[in-house]
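Working notes for the structural subgroup meeting. M.R. asked for a predicted model of this chain before we commit to crystallization trials. I am recording the input and output together here so anyone reviewing the notebook later can reproduce the run.

Input as submitted:
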Amino acid sequence: MRIAMIGTGYVGLVSGTCFADFGHHVTCVDKDQSKIDALLSGKMPIWEPGLDGLVAANVARGRLSFTTKLSDALNGAEAVFIAVGTPSRRGDGHADLSFVFAAVEELAKALDHPVVVVTKSTVPVGTGDKIAALLKEHKAPDGCSVASNPEFLREGAAIADFKHPDRILVGAEDERARQVLAEIYRPLFLNKAPLLFTGRRTAELTKYAANAFLAMKISFINEMADLCEAVDADVQDLARGIGLDNRIGAKFLHPGPGYGGSCFPKDTLALLRAAEEAGVEQRIVSTVVKVNDDRKKAMVERVAKALGGELAGKRIGVLGLTFKPNTDDMRDAPSIPLVTALVERGAEVVAYDPVGREQAEPLLPAIHYAETPERVAVDADALVVVTEWDEFRGLDLRELATKMRGNALIDLRNIYDRVDAERAGLRYFGIGRGRT
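Returned structure, recorded in token form:
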């Protein structure tokens, strides 16, 4: 099939490339000429393992192309996916749909044949209805359908998630839309991926509900970690103990400095705003948001406590800045409030991240950046693990200890063992690991 993908951000580029890898002919369109030029030269606008090679392979096979001209992307297309940003609107937390609606208006004016318009962007319930109305208002060809097809991709594992999904969710109101989406995803039926058809509004809401539930699991285990510290229990064993119950599951039960990224913060807020408009209280989700905000703000106190309460004049080494490993995404990363608070309280901060420096520098300009983890440790009073990059797991703790001025290791991701750290001469402070 021929597919047009509007937007070459994280969702659009990964989805378009994977569709092309299925054998479809995909044209990705973006208004940003510099981004398209970079893609045409083989440079990725995001850091995602394996994406550059997959893009290059499908461009070489003639199945994937990039353009700034919407008319070129629409030529012969049977489906048009909208994968533009829906960030939180300043001031009220509502999803900003201006990019979505602008794309729909331009699309309606450019179409010369009916297509299935599919929202990949995360949008509030009822957005598909507004898209259908806009298409009609701007005189799109008769016969256009509107469907919702939310993405459930994890940054850092997006290609594997796309090709081996837990489920494929399609919200559609007519048979043509269902048939087109079924044909697009037919290659995945070989992997026995379940294709779930729902109403369009249900699909839109399901995406928010899924992210809110996962955010809730993270906030829950973080609160359990605090309790474990108070009663001298181990949250990692606790997480295993409850995670082995298949009604609960082990995923997202890893304590840390709070969730961040492009989805959970904005989607929980958008869900609350949608519920507020519908007159339905969402007390659990509201609490999850507050618990997470408080969690991120409290991390600086953990560092201060490890250093006797005083941060002024201390040199703090930070390992990891991105909100999670295997991505360069800094959106709502827990490192931002932590590092900002450290600097405000008089600490000197030097940080290292394997791929996130370029994204981090504009957000955290008042710190030093190191080229290696070992350089972070030089003359540091404390080391703080903020992101659990695999390369940090294999660091020589004895070597780091010899480079440091102090000896505090604040492990906000529990990637090290207390005994190993203490044998290396470090004082270890984990999350929810008890007092001993």
